[in-house]
Amino acid sequence: MRTDCALLIFVKFPQRGMVKTRLAKDTGAYFATEFYRICTEHILSETKKLKKENFTAYIYCYSNSEVEMVSGWVGKEFIVKAQIDGDLGERMSRSFNEIFHEGFSKVLIIGTDVPDITSDLINSAALKLDKSDFVIGPSSDGGYYLLGMNRPITEIFHEINWSTSIVLQNTLDKIKSLELKVDLIDELIDIDTKNDLINWMKIRSDLNNPVYKYLADYYKKLQQS
Q1: Is there a contact between 115 and 39 (Cβ–Cβ < 8 Å)?
Q2: Which of 79, 104, 177, 193 has the CA that lies 20 to 30 A from 21?
Q3: Pairwise CA distance, residues 163 & 126, whole Å
Q4: How far apart are CA 90 and CA 60, in angstroms?
Q5: Phi and psi at residue 179, in whole multiples of 5°?
Q6: What is the pLDDT of residue 208?
């Protein structure tokens, strides 16, 4: 068994009208697409800081049709694969099983809607799997932005009310029913709507974060709208 950790990143190619559609309703498709692109690139830059002897990074793009475009976008430092068809649980379940089959001792998955994900946070989450079966990073909308496990226990993806405010609670209830241990890390804001964006800007002032830099001028306009 490999002793390093696999990091799976679920990604869509930043095509206008295909990403951040809820945000686009209030901000316009161009802004929403640019936000998604910048946020994703920021998270990818954070993952590049992880030690390569400890982590292997995989990009799971939304479909086979995106593989070539996503590969050209993210560069050669990532192994690009396509997700299977199905709901989010089915997509994650298959991805975890596929990567554990390659021999990894730990697997983490993250999305690309949370600008506060850092390399330190990912590294800390992986370390928690030395003592816990699962690690979860809760998001402010009742879901999670990070999930990790130290063996393939994909039952936690079954019978979950995806895209609702009870995803995290459903998942914790499932883990409890399996009598397994979970560690929770910091709750972060998942930006899907205009209100999410405003709330994040209110509590952040990090000019070194490229997402914050991009949003700073636009945020002023949102406050006036």
Answers
A1: yes
A2: 79
A3: 25
A4: 13
A5: 55, 45
A6: 80
| 3-state class (DSSP) for residue 112 | coil
Residue type present at position 115: P
Cα–Cα dist 180/192, whole Å: 31
Please report, for residues 6, 166, 169, the alpha-carbon distance to residue 144 in angstroms, rounded to integers and kept in the order given. 18, 10, 10
Bridge partner residues of 61 (DSSP)? 11, 82
User: What is the rounded CA–CA span in Å between residue 21 and residue 39?
Assistant: 15
**CB 5, CB 105: distance < 8 Å:** yes
Q: Which helix (H) or strand (E) holds 137?
A: strand 134-138
Q: Nearest 5°: phi and psi at 175?
A: -60, -40
CA distance 10 to 24: 20
- Half-sphere exposure of residue 132: CA atoms within 13 angstroms, side-chain side: 19
**Residue written as tokens 């993952």?**
47
Tell the CATH superfamily of the 2-189 domain. Spore Coat Polysaccharide Biosynthesis Protein SpsA; Chain A (3.90.550.10)
Confidence (pLDDT) at 61? 96
Please state, in angstroms and rounded to a whole number, the distance separating the CA atoms of residues 89 and 158.
7
C-alpha atoms less than 13 angstroms from C-alpha of 147 in its C-beta half-sphere: 21
Contact 84, 63 (CB under 8 A): no
Chunk the chain into consecutive blocks of 10 residues (it has 225) and report each block's average pLDDT, rounded to whole numbers: 90 95 93 95 96 95 95 95 95 97 97 95 97 97 97 95 96 97 96 90 81 79 64
Alpha helices in 55-177 (DSSP H): 67-74, 88-100, 119-128, 167-177
